[in-house]
Amino acid sequence: MDRRFSELASIPDAQIFSVVFFPDRVYHAEYLNATRSSRYRYNVQEVRGKSDAMVLKGEVYFDGLFLCNFMRIECRGARLVEVARERGRFVEGQIQAQVRVASATVAADARLTMTYCPWIDAYQVECWKTLEAPVGRRHDYQVLDMMGAGGSITTVPVFDQLLDDLGAIRWINLSFREGQFAYPSGFFISDLDAAWDNFYERNVQVPNTQAPSSDQNTVRESSYGVTFQRGWYFDNVRRMAPVRYRNAMMNNGAPGSGQNNIVEMRWVLQQELGGSLVFFHEVTVPVGVVEGTHQHVGSEELYYVVDGKGVAYLGFDDDPALANVPIVMRDIFGIGPKPCRAVPVEPGSVIFTKSGGIHGIENSGDSPLRFVAFLYHCA
Fold first, then answer.
1. Using CA atoms, how far apart are residues 369 and 30, in angstroms rounded to an integer?
2. In whole angstroms, what is the distance from residue 184 CA to residue 223 CA?
3. How many CB atoms lie within 10 A of CB 328?
4. Under a CB-based contact definition with an 8 Å cutoff, are residues 365 and 264 in contact?
5. Domain with CATH 2.60.120.10 in the chain
6. Using an 8 Å Cβ cutoff, are 360 and 291 in contact?
7. CA nearest to 197, candidates 97, 327, 320
């Protein structure tokens, strides 16, 4: 990252925008492995997050001289702890990461050991292109102690070509498993029996066919995708082929369901989103069509209506400002009838639903109803 960004922290005119720059600047601080010695310095060039994981790539300097390129992986482990508990085990000092690094022309896979670091309260490992000190110099003992196979600073020969050109790295896939030995029993844990945090059986939606609700459009994923592409431009997402769903989020026989109750979703961004964001898509609800009323648990979603008119349904006590809106009964997907508030929506209307909240929408106008939706994990 360009060091001139540091100056923005002290410019009064830029204070309002500090949230834009700070997350990248923080990785110039003193919390990477080799900074245990003042002889080492990192130049972190790019940072990406995905749920519990963080990936950094950049350069390592030793005694003021460029030493090599590096890639660092961090994992907070919160989700991994939960799935290990389901097996009656604890996640202790080490976990493993299955890592795939890819450029446009080269890809490589490796299994890495990640060690818990109290400095950052997370598991971490750094892959350096080389662990060899420059001619005539020796690594400091504080850093040398962390170096080697299975160490917090390691080399991965299959990544050498990719680390030669950090700018060419475009995609990293990550999945995490508990350590090789169970705590407190000490028994060996195979991959088959291990607790994994591997995107939790999530999937991405791809318009492989226009048949409504076809299994061909659901592509399973078994890892977190971290992209280092820096920008996207879509000239018109309406030209994207949609994925079509019949009776989306509706129980069989629910009011409004039927063979022609088909909603279209254009999945603009999915794995590309970082942090805890899950997707951004545009939804088209044809005239007379209903997107089923459903409840969110552990996720939040925002609808912003851009075209058409309709009626949205919210849980009857979700928004206190709607206390005077009449109550209607709606069939909630997977749950059954519950009281809701019915509110009109038009271009500019926003529906924001927190975990535990209920929402759904139907087109009651005479033209297609369209809204864009952001969904992300909140827990």
1. 51
2. 28
3. 12
4. no
5. 204-221+229-377
6. yes
7. 97
Taking residues 22-46, report their average pLDDT. Answer: 77
Local structure of 85: helix, strand or coil:
helix
Contacts for 218 with CB less than 8 Å, ≥ 6 apart: 203, 205, 206
Neighbours of 231 (CB within 10 A): 4
What pLDDT is recorded for position 184? 73
Provide the whole-model pTM: 0.88
Provide the sign of the torsion angle of the four alpha carbons 358, 311, 282, 21, taken in this order: negative
Among positive and negative, which fits the CA dihedral 248, 249, 250, 255? negative
204-221+229-377: which CATH topology? Jelly Rolls (2.60.120)
Residue at token pair 């972190």 = 44
Evaluate whether 144 touches 82 at the Cβ level (below 8 Å): no
d(CA 300, CA 370): 19
Residue whose structure tokens are 């945090």: 197
- Nearest Cα residue to 94 out of 72, 70, 75: 75
Which amino acid is present at 175? S
Cα 332 from chain centre: 27
pLDDT tens digits, residue range 206-264? Answer: 999 999 999 999 999 899 999 999 999 999 999 999 999 999 999 999 999 999 999 99
Q: How far is 378 from 222, CA to CA, in rounded Å? A: 21
Residue 79's identity, in one-letter code, is R
Round to whole Å and give the CA distance between 74 and 83: 18
Closest CA to 91 of 113, 109, 116: 116
Looking only at the bridges linking them, the beta strands covering 336-345 and 327-332 are: antiparallel
Largest Cα–Cα separation, the chain: 81
Q: Is 189 exposed, middle or buried (0-12, 13-18, 19+ CB in 10 A)?
A: buried
Q: Following DSSP, what letter does each residue of 195-252 receive, concatenated?
A: -EESSTT-EEE--S--STT-GGGEEE--SEEEE-------S-GGGSPPEEEETTT--T
**Alpha carbons 181 and 143: distance in angstroms, whole number:** 26
